[in-house]
Amino acid sequence: MPPRLFPLLLAALVAAPALSRAATPAERPPNILFIFADDHSRKVISAYEDAYPLARTPNLDRLAASGIRFQAGYLGAWCMPSRASLLTGLHPHAIETMRMTGPNPQSTYDPAVCRFWPAVFRRHGYQTAQIGKWHTGTDAGWGRDWDYQRVWNRPANPADAGNYYGPQIVDFNGQPRTVEGYATDNYSRWAADYIRGEGRDPGKPWYLWLCYGAIHGPTIPAPRHRGTLRDAPVAPPRDLFGPRPGKPAYLEGTQAWQRGPAGEALDKNGRSTHADWLRQANECLQAVDEGVGEVLRALRESGQLERTLVIYSSDQGYANGEHGLKQKVAPYEASYASPFIVSQPGTIPAGQVSPHVVNAPDVVVTFFAQAGIPLPWKMHGRDFSPLLRDPARARWDHATLYTNTGQDYGASVTATLRGAKPPRHAGVPYFAAVRHGHLKYIRYFDAREPEELYDLRADPEELTNLAGEPGRGADLVRLRTLWRQELQAADASYLELLPSAGSGAGGN
């Protein structure tokens, strides 16, 4: 080699994007198992430091110990947009043709415009499978996006949409049938059967999206778990009732708890105490935890554990009294942040904790990087593979964007913002927020509500809004800049329609 060419070759090698060991062309790419639960924050996973004291998740704790436990995932404000983002790699404001229509929860989209990436994995040699809850259009994509499906298609069967725990109408590769039994256990068994070979081509790597409906309301524990936590002590959150100085006024309308005759916290219908509700939610998750153990056992016994990238998360958090809430959607850690655990023994270091947060588009972009497949269209995420290789020393200084645009997608977000009334969903104004390190910045699409700035290291419960505090001006300006940059990079065409920074009238 001519000496003058060696520095050029060396520079090219250094600049080339690094792929994970499993994604190199010389080797079969990894299987990907994405376990996706419903409506719970990281606080119900006992491996997390801020877990509720009554949390009991031994299998998920072992999964975390075998890999990397991220600070959180910001995957979506509620069920449908989180799934739409995870199927497209886009934030909801850029997903065209997706819309709610007909009886709730019916929704639809044009698959020629709103493309789902599992079809791309199929073209690149993967077998794609989805088991469990489907909540993204009446068209579940069988034969186009998925090779194998056993899905409870809620949009296609609105009369069956409330049967989270069974019996359910389940589509078996496009053919509906009624299935008895506890749904969480059914999904776990079907996933384990698929991993062991049922309906699967052994010559292909596979992607399996296992979508539990638990612990979404009505949050019914399996019979074997009912009452197992009846005596577990429960401490109410500090701002269960308020007051909440400096926080947005909408929290008055989303206040879900009231004081009972003995001073206990009752839900607004007076039917459940806060303590009993939290016990029930954690009892319901125990079947999910057991299911995780079952599918991991299938991986291990079939010899695929070290060849499979395993991710556990939830579509969004769910507040259980924090900020007076009993819901998702709001931009706080309890109501938005999901657990996020990644494991692949032998490839991903074990027993690690990452302080970083990832969003739904990040997850999709990373799947493509791990599989060694080029992105088929512009996506809004970043490949966090460096954090999987060396979470302690990887350079990662990115802000994480997350949003709530309710039932609006694509161009309808801009159209709604042009209306006369600031839009809300579940009582919460539309918003966009960024997290950078331990700081979080929130801006609502309603000029009557204040900006919010939180130092999550000093104030993990988000009790003190720092946006108006002396000495925080530089942080506020920097986070506002990152907020705008992230929205611009994510094709948010509605930016100029939003209230100016600092226009909020104040909080409670």
Any key phrases for this structure?
508 residues; alpha/beta; Alkaline Phosphatase, subunit A; Arylsulfatase, C-terminal domain; 2 domains; ten-stranded mixed β-sheet; 20 strands; disordered N terminus
Description:
The chain has helices at 6-15, 58-65, 79-88, 118-123, 183-196, 250-253, 274-301, 333-336, 360-371, 385-389, 411-417, 473-489; strands at 31-37, 68-74, 99-100, 107-108, 127-134, 148-153, 168-172, 175-179, 206-211, 257-259, 265-267, 308-314, 338-343, 352-359, 400-404, 424-425, 428-429, 431-436, 439-444, 452-455. It has 508 residues and is of the alpha/beta class. It is globular, with a radius of gyration of 22 Å.
Short description:
This protein has 508 residues and is an alpha/beta fold. The chain is built from 12 helices and 20 strands.
Note the topology.
Elements: H1 6-15, E1 31-37, H2 58-65, E2 68-74, H3 79-88, E3 99-100, E4 107-108, H4 118-123, E5 127-134, E6 148-153, E7 168-172, E8 175-179, H5 183-196, E9 206-211, H6 250-253, E10 257-259, E11 265-267, H7 274-301, E12 308-314, H8 333-336, E13 338-343, E14 352-359, H9 360-371, H10 385-389, E15 400-404, H11 411-417, E16 424-425, E17 428-429, E18 431-436, E19 439-444, E20 452-455, H12 473-489
